[in-house]
């Protein structure tokens, strides 16, 4: 029954469906957003709130919260967070943008929290590493694309892959640049992926389309050499020994990351958009040596779990240190589609609705206190 034709969209946020329940009416081709489902939310700060007494010791529950939306979203998407947290007297800022907000406003002086959804979580982490004067106390990643994406062989990636050809692909990368519709289902098992990785090596695409920066090619050399973003944020980019600046930048990013007191990563095997979903818990697909192997060994790619990644083992950007001092938390929530971290959303595999409020209550709210 019933339910919907879930035309799931692939990747970060995007989905088109029609459901008899119609909590959220059929959108255009956004994974998460559509006009009628999202109340108009003022993006101005709740400036009327009294300033807290900053002399007293500040607890996490008093800290302001920033919300980073995902690839196809906008700042109104955090409306459920805004409603709950402002009702409790907290300062909530759906981004757009930051330094203007935090300087000259005493309410941010003792720190704040970043919440990022989907690509927004990757952006939030990049800000944490790049902003030398940040005071982010806790980072909360909701179904974050925080360790790159790759459409691999595991069954859980099928939902995401299905809709690359059904509109999502063209929405994130124009069809004349890469045609996701030009592949048979068999070709979606390695051939498309190898072509997509090759195409994403183009610096012009790297500069213009975030999907190519988020792509984590299992051909490691290629990924390190051609991805302008993710290797750098993961601090695994290659620095020539004499490149003093490059080495200093790594130290700076790691120091900035380690100003965090806590990082919380939430993910669900039923996400349906982030591939692999384990990337939201800082895993990634295993690696191969060449494009040829990417195709011939595609089916044997497996997910490398966080503790086996170079980023963690070599503590490239501070993850292991954060873990060792008790500040790294990861949560797997069953049955949560990508957008349910923000509002009610139909489930991908079964009938029924994933409801935001119970999920918020069980997982996210607790870490904001
Ligand atoms: C955010 O997206 C909604 C739904 O697509 C749209 O109605 C609204 O105008 C957008 N707001 C901004 C600030 O872009
Ligand atoms: C905010 O959400 C939490 C967790 O679901 C709930 O316990 C609390 O009552 C909510 N606060 C308001 C003001 O709605």
TrEMBL record:
<protein>
    <recommendedName>
        <fullName>Lysosomal thioesterase PPT2</fullName>
    </recommendedName>
</protein>
<dbReference type="GO" id="GO:0016790">
    <property type="term" value="F:thiolester hydrolase activity"/>
</dbReference>
<keyword id="KW-0378">Hydrolase</keyword>
<dbReference type="Pfam" id="PF02089">
    <property type="entry name" value="Palm_thioest"/>
</dbReference>
<keyword id="KW-0732">Signal</keyword>
<dbReference type="GO" id="GO:0005764">
    <property type="term" value="C:lysosome"/>
</dbReference>
<dbReference type="InterPro" id="IPR029058">
    <property type="entry name" value="AB_hydrolase_fold"/>
</dbReference>
<feature type="signal peptide">
    <location>
        <begin position="1"/>
        <end position="18"/>
    </location>
</feature>
